[in-house]
Amino acid sequence: MASSSADTSLALAHPPLPLTAPSEKLTLAAVALGLLALLVAAADADTYRARLSMYLALTLLSGGTLAWAGVKFGHRPAGVQQNNLWLRASTSRGAIAWVLGLVLTGFYVLLYWFPEYLERLIRTLDPFSQSLRGKAADQWFLYGTFYTLAVLLMGGRALWKYRHSRYQLIRTASVMFFQLGFSFLLPGLLLLFQKPEFYFSYFWPLKYDYLFPGTVGYLVKDGQALGVFMVFWGAVMSLVATPVLTYFYGKRWYCSWVCGCGGLAETAGDPYRQLSDKSRAAWRWEVRIIYAVLVFIVLVTALLWVAASGAVPALQPISEGLSKTYGFVIGAVFSGVIGVGFYPLMGARVWCRFGCPMAAYLGLLQKHFSRFRISTNGAQCISCGNCSNVCEMGIDVKQYAQRGEPIIRASCVGCGLCSTVCPRGVLNLENGPREGRYQASALIHSDSLRILS
């Protein structure tokens, strides 16, 4: 009898997951067949057959994913539901999450250091690359295609999931637009017309080499007007537009609306946002690492310019060595292998939270100079914890909401999910005047208490 009682208690504590509907199983089967076709394309030595397998894979993956999103989220009432997140093996660091993490990290390792193993996949995209860029495909075109497809397909999922929120719909459409238009099609078309490949939605210090003397020299060589404009665009966006836009809108204008890294995190990484570490120890490591990365890239950029001036010739090998070190450790290992490969294990914003120098730069501006804040009304908070659960930047939002304190954190990317999931309307994203920025929510809280009394 004792054993039976224990089994009953365990069953009540961990109820079984609801059965998957047949229609959802069918769409997931299409996705699985698409992944299988992708493996066939990667293994087939015959280019024609491999290309057919690739087209079949992309069709099944695209159709299956969008159909699955429609079935899963379209047939139930609108609203964010966080049921069973910590019971599913795919969203709670279970076996499925570990397998997916290993696959993603393995792909990045091959992409950066062993692209020859991806050669057959790369060759399947030659016709597409020729039509868009006027040249054969390489590993970066393969990566860009997969990356953009992930943002678009999982962006479609997000549009279904958050269809009740106008802010989330516009924000998701924005990152999809910038990834497809500015980070994929436009750079390809520039190559087609024999112009320098340039990503207008990435700025220094995230796209760290855009203000390096070598890149600047390459773009302005022969006095080409477009190259000069590219240098001007990058410098103005990094040093002028970024502070101005951040003053008015916080870092969300970039991190949650424009950036490709943030775009992937907000779409493909959405199922894993609850995995971000909310502990104070994690916050300490965040501060130590991300600002060290920012200082490192500022130092490297300055040293490269001093070396390029010829004033200190001995700096040339040192600055180039530091540049290569940054490119390997930060540009490849941190942003790629860890930043994306660890989505299913550590959440989708590991790179944005701990390593991105652009996020650090924007965060400093947001915390000390911006009008942006998330106001809270503690009198209405019921401590459900939904807000903290969805914060991918590791902010324990509930603690602020309970005290009625405004959230003014350097790490906050302004995704707005905390406000979207709040059942009582406690949290509001605001771009109010800087005067009273820290006291605004305290006044709301005191007014609410006076009314209640």
Question: What does this protein look like?
Answer:
This protein is an all-alpha fold. It folds into 2 domains: 93-118 and 141-370, no CATH class; 372-452, Alpha-Beta Plaits (2-Layer Sandwich), CATH 3.30.70.20. The protein has 21 helices and 2 strands. The chain has helices spanning 2-13, 22-43, 47-74, 95-113, 119-124, 126-133, 139-161, 166-192, 213-220, 225-249, 252-255, 260-267, 280-309, 315-338, 343-346, 350-354, 357-369, 386-390, 397-403, 417-421, 440-452, and strands at residues 373-376, 427-430. The chain has a two-stranded antiparallel ribbon. α7 (139-161) packs across α12 (260-267), α8 crosses α12 and α13 packs antiparallel against α14. The chain starts with a helix and ends with a helix.
List keywords for this structure.
single chain, 453 residues, mainly alpha, Alpha-Beta Plaits, two-stranded antiparallel ribbon, 65% helix, 2% strand, globular, disordered C terminus, transmembrane, 4Fe4S_Fe_S_CS, electron transport
Largest sheet features:
2 strands, antiparallel
The average pLDDT is 91
**Termini distance?**
52 Å
What is the CA-based Rg, rounded?
A: 24 Å
Q: Which strand-content bin applies to the residues? A: under 5%
Regarding quaternary structure, what we see is single chain
Which geometry do the CA atoms define?
globular
Instruction: Tell me how many strands there are.
Output: 2
Structural class, from secondary structure content?
mainly alpha
Low-confidence stretches: 6-12, 440-453
Give the domain tally: 2
Q: What's the helical proportion of residues?
A: 55-70%
Which strand order do you get reading across the main beta sheet?
A: 1-2
Number of H/I helices: 21
- What is the H-and-E element order? HHHHHHHHHHHHHHHHHEHHHEH
Organism: Hymenobacter fastidiosus
Pfam families: Fer4_21 (PF14697), Fer4_5 (PF12801)
Protein name: 4Fe-4S ferredoxin-type domain-containing protein
Keywords: 4Fe-4S, Electron transport, Iron, Iron-sulfur, Membrane, Metal-binding, Transmembrane, Transmembrane helix, Transport
